[in-house]
Design goal:
5-stranded antiparallel sheet; 2 domains; mainly beta; 205 residues; single chain
């Protein structure tokens, strides 16, 4: 299980409202301040992630992603660990990561996984995502619990649900803006999200 220690305070959605006089009001909505958590279950071949959307938390389930990593001979030290470089493409982003064989587990931050050692550093080529292990604590035994939330949902269904919830939210906002005003509800751009494209979006018949 990997847990991000801090979450960003970025604005996730904006609503633009313009009245008859041309005055524009911008309303913003932020997600719940829930610590992102990812749980890998090798037994179930499943990855569970905590996702928040419109102030509601979901446990999103998917098959553990397979990433075609390319191993590079370059090495460097991160803390007390000797790490090797690897590159790979995952859901529309090109990643450069550093993993250590000294912890021979195929896991990493967020959904990055599948190397012969734990990933201690990862960065995408757009300089939008960066993961770095500031501290590694090795314990003999620790209880790891699957994330819990109000609802568990498959990833593909969750993406479709988000689209519907955006449409529903737009209708609700439309009833609250001043009469004769215009507004535009702007979801976050896909190219600014962690996952730019999903596997089923590239599938062909």
């Amino acid at each position: 299980m990997f847990t991000e220690l801090k979450t960003s305070n970025k604005i996730t959605d904006k609503v633009y409202s313009e009245d008859d006089k041309g005055n524009t009001t911008i309303a913003v909505m932020k997600e719940l301040d829930v610590r992102p958590t990812n749980y890998f279950s090798k037994k179930e071949d499943s990855l569970y992630s905590i996702e928040t959307f419109f102030k509601k938390a979901y446990v999103v389930k998917e098959v553990i992603p397979e990433i075609a990593w390319q191993l590079i001979t370059e090495t460097k030290n991160i803390g007390q660990f000797n790490c090797q470089k690897a590159t790979g493409i995952f859901r529309g982003r090109n990643y450069t990561v550093w993993f250590t064989n000294e912890i021979p587990l195929p896991f990493g931050p967020w959904k990055l996984n599948g190397l012969p050692g734990v990933i201690l550093e990862a960065k995408d080529d757009k300089n939008q995502l960066y993961f770095f292990a500031k501290k590694v604590v090795l314990a003999d035994q620790e209880e790891i619990l699957k994330p819990e939330a109000e609802q568990t949902i498959e990833l593909r269904k969750f993406i479709s649900l988000k689209d519907k919830l955006y449409q529903d939210k737009e209708k609700v906002i439309a009833t609250k803006v001043p009469r004769n005003s215009k507004f535009k509800f702007t979801p976050p751009a896909r190219n600014r999200q962690k996952e730019i494209i999903y596997e089923w979006e590239t599938e062909t018949d």
